[in-house]
Write a structure and sequence with these properties.
11 helices
Length: 224
């Protein structure tokens, strides 16, 4: 039964991945580049490099893009899906986002509790430039929940939206959220990279497992 279920998921995945190849190509490139950075650079070095490359414009820009992985934004996306795609698709998206969030929280609080964030890691050295108005947390760093949420949302839309030519913008938007977490000194690259992988791996699994009923079918049943 389990084998049959996973075969079904695989068939659906290969079919839909062909229609969103641009998105997955972008994700593979991000995974490769991020993996190389992790292999050759220490997470503290990456944090300091990002922290030293700043400007007033980037401060404002990443303060805004940082909202893309927030709970409020995720709720807004759920409401948007409900309004334009109906209850069935809304429940599917909600399950995707909730499952990804649950994985993040389990890892963050049960498997790697108390992991230091950059502001605590560099607290004694005073090397970090901090931005006014940003609440700096000190622990529960790994993995990045904002990044996981952003890539869960972008992956969901890559799987569900027909305009595949614009899918690379979804990856770029999610990447901007992940980079914002680095820029604002909220996370290390290890946290962001893991959050990205959680979002892009588990979202398709739940997406394909969820028993989706087309909205038009439901309307036809009600009419008859």
């Amino acid at each position: 039964m389990i084998l049959s279920m996973w075969q079904k998921v695989y068939c659906k995945a290969t079919t839909l991945f062909r229609t969103s190849g641009c998105y997955w190509t972008s994700i593979i490139l991000l995974a490769l580049v991020g993996g190389l950075i992790l292999v050759f650079c220490h997470k503290a070095e990456v944090t300091l490099w990002v922290n030293r490359h700043y400007s007033p414009f980037l401060d404002r820009f990443f303060l805004i893009t940082n909202l893309g992985g927030s709970l409020v934004f995720s709720i807004a996306v759920i409401v948007f899906i409900l309004a334009f795609k109906g209850w069935s698709e809304m429940l599917r998206a909600l399950c995707c986002f909730a499952f990804v969030s649950a994985i993040v929280q389990i890892i963050k609080h049960l498997i790697f509790p108390g992991e230091l964030r950059p502001v605590a890691y560099f607290e004694e050295s005073g090397l970090l430039r901090l931005i006014d108005g940003v609440v700096q947390l000190k622990t529960e760093s790994f993995p990045s929940g904002h990044t996981a949420a952003a890539f869960a949302i972008s992956t969901y839309f890559a799987l569900s939206l027909p305009k595949k030519q614009l899918h690379w913008l979804l990856a770029l938007a999610a990447l901007s959220v992940g980079y914002a977490r680095l820029y604002l000194s909220q996370h290390f690259i290890t946290d962001v990279y893991t959050g990205m992988m959680i979002g892009v791996i588990f979202t398709p699994v739940i997406y394909f497992l969820f028993p989706h009923r087309p909205q038009n079918s439901a309307r036809n049943d009600q009419a008859s």
